[in-house]
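User: Need the bound-state model for zinc ion:
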Amino acid sequence: MTIRLFNTMSRKIEEFKPLTPGRVGFYSCGPTVYHYAHIGNLRTMIHSDILKRMFIENGYDVRHVMNITDVGHLTSDADDSGEDKMEKGAARENKSVWDIAKFYKEEFLHDYDDLNIIRPTEMPHATDYIPEQIELVQKLEQLGYTYEIQGDGIYYDTSKFSAYGALTGGAIDGNRAGARVQFNQAKRNPTDFALWKFSPRDVRRQMEWDSPWGVGFPGWHAECSAMSMKLLGAHFDIHTGGEDLSRVHHTNEIAQSEPITGKPWVNYWVHFSFLVDKSGEKMSKSKGEFLGLDALRRRGYDPMAYRYLILLGHYQTQLAFSWEAMDAAAAGYKNIVRRVVDLLKTAPEALDNARFDQWRKKILAPVSDNMKTAETLVRIQEMSKDSDINAATKIALFEFADRLLGLQFIDRARKMLALENTDVPAEIQSLADARAAAKAARDWAAADNLRNQIDAAGWSVVDTRDGMKIIKKA
Ligand code: AMP
Ligand code: ZN
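Assistant: Bound-state model below.
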C-alpha cells in the first residue's frame, strides 16, 4: 500500500520511498530521564508507535532506535545555559545522577509497556556513547566547524553551514530573536551551540568525562547525531520527535551530521504536535507540575483509554487535554470493547476471507495515508456494525486492528467477559471495598497499598464508569 507522510523538511505530504526496499530505519528522540514522563511526552511516543505499527502491517522490516538521555543537558535549550536537568533531578531527590537516571528510565518503560507501545529495537543511553560523541566533535573540528570559548566549551559555528535552519525555514531569524535575551556574548553567532561543555573549575560534576579539550560533558544535540549514525548508518529513512525539537535540536543535529556525511542525512522528518492544557499551554516537565500516566491510573482510567484519546486526534494538530475529553474517550473505548465482548460470545463460524481482505485494506489505508488514525477508528466502528460480516471475520479484523493500533480491544473484551463469569472471593471484595473508601477519603497511599495487595493475590481492581470492577487476572 502507498505510504504518505508529512515531511517537515519539504513542508509537504510525500510518498514514502525506503532507502532499502522492504526496510525502514527510524530514530526517535527519547525521554530525558530526570523525572516521570508526562502524558504529553507519552503522546509523542504513542504516535511513534503508530508509525512503526503502520510500517510493520505494510510488510516492512522496521529498525527503530530511541535514545535515553541520561546525561544532563541544560534547562535553557536555546542557549546552552541554565541548570543541568539531571543534576537538578538528583538534588531534588537527594540521590546520585546515575540513580535518578536508572529509576526514571524504569518508570518510563513501565508507562511505555502499559500503553502497549512496542519497545524500540535499540535503546542507547547517551552515557554509553561518550567516545562516539567526542569523535563527532573531533571530526567537526577537523572540518573547521568549531571554535573554543575559554572556560566555557567547544562551540559549533553555524555560519559555516550554509543550509543551517533549512528544516524550519526562517529558523535562523527566529532563533536570533529568541536568543537575544540571554545571548552568550562570546558566541560568534546567536545560533551557535555547544558541542562540548567544560566542567566548572570549582565544582565537581557527578557526570563528567575526559576529552581532548579537557574534562566536561557533551552538548545536548551531540548524542542523537552520534548514536543514530552509529546504529542506523550515515543515511537513514525517518527521524521523529515532538514539535518543539525541529527549531533547535533537530536543526542542530542536521548541522552536526551533514558536514560529516557529506550528503542529506535523514529522508523524512516527522514531528508530533503537543499535548496542551485547556489554555493552550504546553505540558512540560521543567515547569514541575504535570500529569503522568499514574495520575490517570489513580483516577481509574485504563491506559488504553488514553491511547484511544490520542488516536482520536491527528498528530499534526495540538490536542487540548481535559478530564471531560478523557471521560468521553474512556466511554467510547468501552463501547467498542463491549461490542467485541458480544462477538466473543457468538458460536464459532468460518472466516470470510474475501471480506477480511477487503476490510483489512479499508482499516489500514487511512493510517498509511499520513497516519489518519481517527479515520481508521471510524472504519473500525463501521466494520463492527456491518451486518454482512460474520462474527469470526469481525474478530479477526479486531485482531488486525489491535496489531495496527495497539488498542488491545480483544484483550480488554476477554477481561470484561471474565469479569462477568467469575465470583469474587470475600477477602478480595473487602480489600476492594477498603480501597474504595481510601480513595473517597483521598488517601492515595492507602488506596495504592490496597491495590497492591489485591494485585498480589492475582486480582485487579478497575474503576469504570459503571463503578468498581474486580477482575481475576489471566
Ligand atoms: P523530553 O523527555 O523532554 O526530552 O521529551 C521527550 C519527547 O517528548 C520529545 O520528543 C519531546 O518533543 C516530546 N514532548 C515534550 N513535551 C511534549 C508535549 N507537551 N506534548 C507532546 N510531546 C511532548
Ligand atoms: Zn534527539
